[in-house]
Every structure is written in structure tokens, then in C-alpha cells.
Amino acid sequence: MAILATAMIPVGAGAVVDTPALNAYARARLADGDGALTIAVDGYAQAMAADPDNAVLALRSYRQALEAGDMGLALRSARVLDAAGVLPRDGTLLFAIDALSRKDWDGARHWADRLKAEENFAFLAPFLTSWVSVVDGPYVAPLADEKSQFATLTGRYIDEHVALQALARGQQAEADPAILRALSLQTSTQVGLRIALAMRLTALGRRDDAAALLNRDDPALIAAKAELATNRRISTPALTPAQGFGRTFARLADDVGGGNSRSLALTLARLASFSDPKSAEMRVALARQLALSDYSDAAIAEAMKVPRGSVWAAVADDIRISALSQSGRQDEALAVARETVAQPDATAAQYLQLANLLSDMKQFGPAVDAYRQAQQRLAGGVAPWSLYLLEGSALERGGRWAEAKVALDKALALAPEEPVVLNYLGYAQVERRLNVPAALALLRKASALRPDDAAIADSLGWAHYVSGDARSAVPVLEKAAAGAPDDVTVNEHLGDALWAVGRRYEARYAWTAASTFAEGEAATRIGGKVRGGYKPELSAP
Hints:
Oligomer: single chain
Low-confidence stretches: 1-18
Shape: globular
């Protein structure tokens, strides 16, 4: 292992790297590959201690330290990289947070200038300098340089910073229009911003205005509103520059998260947690990004750091349950989900999460009960079509078709133009050979609304076949197979339809494709058709 590591750590001319550094590096790389953040960062820290000026090692250490949350190692590694002229652009953000946390205002201004020069995160420089000016005057509001290519990005976040800074400075008249702009110009609920603003308005004696900001159907906002109603005295210190500047990173993480930007989103969320390490909101933002990056254990650990009495506790539970389920720890996820609904103030969202988990675990009876509990807890007792669809699906999969039909009909009545409802209700009846003409009409409508959906095309084609019109079924099923070439059900349906119209060589080809991924009873049934051709007892369900 040490020999392998030697090739992985380039050193300067005449430099000697001793065996402990090599072994520590090798252990860290192995742990890194396995997603074991704590073990990996410990190995990198040991290697850095033995070879403190190695830039290649520092880069590995820097990235891993950010992911694992070791700010000290991240800073040490960043200094080595900066000295070598290869500091990643987000390293400047780390140095800025460090300066703010140490109240080194001149240092923070230096890093703001560096952000402008490096350009990648130049749109954040106005926020950094304005937060410094809140405490080290004279105050300068964040402004977007209209000549800059980053003006639009800066403008996206200006109003929320102006509002928070105005409240920190006691300038309520200045804060009010900025609050309105910040919340009205965004498409999302802005849960964290609403809570931050509400707590500060409460501290200024404006409880009614604070409550109005919290009047949304969101677990954290509901909890914050309840806290506001029950606690007559809420003391909320003004945001520090580090906390104020760091809020932007959590916002950015949500904005850029997903797909190829997961690594950047996780880095930003970690920087947000460095800026305000005691904030439950930042902890939740970090846990969410860790889960999205498949660091389930780390996400669970972060979520568990959120105090039970926090307004963010329900959100943390949600992330924890999802991460446990994602990592295959279904029983633990179920135990936590049951704990959440055992609370007297359990919400519809918490029952919905329990129900989905039970449904995934094929515990359909308890899932139905949980879906119905969710419906009862919705404001006004009016459930959306999606909740009736989920209930109907659990009932149908649990063998309770008569009840399932009632729930699915409710979903259809609420969403008559929703393709997923039309498809589910139509196909469920075709499978049972019930009301086939009516089901076919539903599926024709679903296909017209979503013509490129392979699953809907399969349902429609199979409905044609079941109704006795195999010739109409074939072209529709061929289209479905082109859109989902690896789908077992689609290929089996196509094979049955091709056989019925006399295209038997092609039918066997479709069945063979289906058999490649088939399991259990389906594999036995399809294999029989591949070997001996179609027989009525081998028909697809």
C-alpha cells in the first residue's frame, strides 16, 4: 500500500516523504472512496502533519475537510494551496468566513477584493463588504455593479440582505420595503428567510408582522408560529457579519444543488455551517446537501444535531428518515417516522412521509391508515388529488380493489386532466379486465396529454390488446418499447401482441429482451414463452 501511495504524492526535488505520511494518505484515499468522511479526514490530517507543504496532498485534504466539516484542516490546506498559487476559488470564501469569525474586518475587506479579482464568486463581494460595514461603518448597502457580468446574480439576493441589515441596524422603515421585495420576487417559500425576519421583527416588538410572515403551510414555519404564540418574550440577537454573509451560501446551495453541481452545493452548505455553527437552519441545509450527495451517514449525524425544541426539528427528522431509507436502513427509518407522528402536534407532512415509507416496505394496510391520517390533518380537511392517488395505490397494491377504486375516482374528480391519475386508474382496471372500454378511454386521454410517456403508451397499447384489438396495440407498444427498451413489462406486452398478429419471430425477440431483467414469477412466465411460444396461461397480467 505504501508503494502505491508513493506514486500518488508528488514531492519536490530532494524531498523525502516518510512512511507514516504515505500510509496515512493511502488510508485516507481508501476511506474517501468508501464515503467514510471521518476516517478519510483523519488520514489526510495525519498525512498533512507529516508533509505540511505538499500541494497535491493539500488539495485532497482541503476537499475532504470541507465535506467532513473540519474547518481547521480546511484552512491549513487552503493556506498551502494559496502559497502554491493553486487555491480553488471557493477557498477565498473560506478565508473570508474565517476573517469574519475572528472579527478581522480589514482582512475580510481584503478577501472581498480578492473575490472581485477572481470573478467566480465576485457577485458575493458586495454582501461581504456591506456586512462588515454594519459593524465597522460607515454602512454601505450592497449594490450590484450594473456594468458587471455578475449584476444579475448579485441582484437576486440583494433585498434579503438589505432587509436583514436594516433590522440589525434598527432601521425598520428601511427594512419593510426590502422585506416585501425579497419575498415577492422569489418563487419559493423562503422558509429560512421568513423565520429569520420574523424572529427579528418579534425582538423589535412587531409580533403581528412576524406572525404574518410565518403564515404558510410548512413544518418549520408552523413550528415557528407556534413558538411565537406561546412565548411572550423572544430575544433574538442581531446577525453577526459572519452569520449574515453565510446565509447566502445556504441559499446558493439550494439554488445550484442537484446533477453535476452537487459537489459545489455541498461545499456551499458546509461554508454556511462554518459561518454559523450553532444555527439549526444551517445544520438542516448541510444535512440536506449531504443526503443529496449520497453521504447518508453524515447527513443523519448532522440532522441529529438539531435540538428537539428547534423549529427546524421536523425538517431535520424528515431528512434523517430519508437518509436512513436511502442507505437501506428501512427499519430505523420507520422507527423514527413513527416517533414523529406520535407527537401531539404531528403534521400531515409527517404522516405522509410515514405512509410513503410503509408503502415502499409493502406494508400497505398501515400505509393506507397513515395516508388517511394525513388527509385529516390538512387545512380545511381538503386533500389534494395526489394524496388520494397515493391512498388508492396502496389499497390497490394491498388487494383492496373496491376501496382503491373509490380513492382513485376521488383523485380523478379533483384532477381530470392529470395524466398520472388517468393512467393509474385506467391500467388498474385493464389489469383486472374490468370496465375495459371506459379504461381505454381514460388511457387515450392520458396519452393525448402526454404523448411521449412510455409508461402511458404501454398502458394504452395493452388496453387495446386486452380489448381484442391486437393490431392497434402493436404500433403503440412498439413506441413504448422504443422509449423504455429495458422495461420488462413493456417488452412482454409487446411480445404478446406481436404473437397475436402473427409476427412470432419478433415476439420471441421482445420476450427475450423482457427476460433479461425479469425476476420471480415474471421470469418463469416469460421464459416459458421464449421456449415454447405463447399459451393462454402464460399471458401477461
